[in-house]
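User: I'm preparing a small set of examples for a lab meeting where we compare how different chains pack in three dimensions. I only have the primary sequence for this one, and I'd like the structure in token form so I can line it up with the others. Please keep the answer compact; I'll paste it straight into my notes.
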Amino acid sequence: MAANLKSAVVLVSGGLDSATVLAIARAEGYRCIALSFDYGQRHRIELDAARQVAVQGGAVEQRVLTLPIGELGGSALTDRNIDVPAATDATGDDIPLTYVPARNTIFLAMALGLAETTGARDIFIGANAVDYSGYPDCRPAFIEAFERLANLATRAGVEGDGFRIHAPLIDLSKAEIIRRGTELGVDYALTSSCYNPAPDRAACGVCDSCTLRARGFQEAGIPDPTRYRA
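Assistant: Understood. Below is the structure token output for the 230-residue chain.
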């Protein structure tokens, strides 16, 4: 039966959102190849989480690619000289220090290459435009533009066997994401969302990602399994 399943490449970071996306893709009947990246992130603990999420989520395989995009600098997630900021109530168009230049563009490009070489025509990403940190590469317009690019820049797209970029969380709140994942059996205790975790994986509790995560569990009415330092 497994041979009859359609294949998908799923970007799996080890965080809450990507774990949910993997569960959604599996629930929709996809044979999932999990793709993760070691890009010089200071929170490399998420790679351990990604491995566990891929196994628990039923991925048929996981690939971890090493990309030197952290060497470009410009982000608190890759540059040790820039402190990870605590969450603020800032709104508007401010792009935070935790934005990694071109990260989702590069990740999706690698996922596209893997999809074309493995015969997959669907790519899943956990981008979210509601409870997110102001990143420009998490907006619906970006996802739509990349799908157009994917079908212009590949042999498969030109020959009419095009790609679809799925962002099933794009319009959901963090609480809605958590409820959906819980329904699908996601074990959120395996995930890691913190931008500045301790060596023992304890989350800082004060970065933007921790704040959104904690609020999401509270609003969802579901116990938060995260171990926070603060």
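A couple of notes for your slides: The beta strands are 6-11, 30-38, 61-66, 122-124, 164-166. The chain is about 35% helix and 10% strand.

User: Perfect, thanks.
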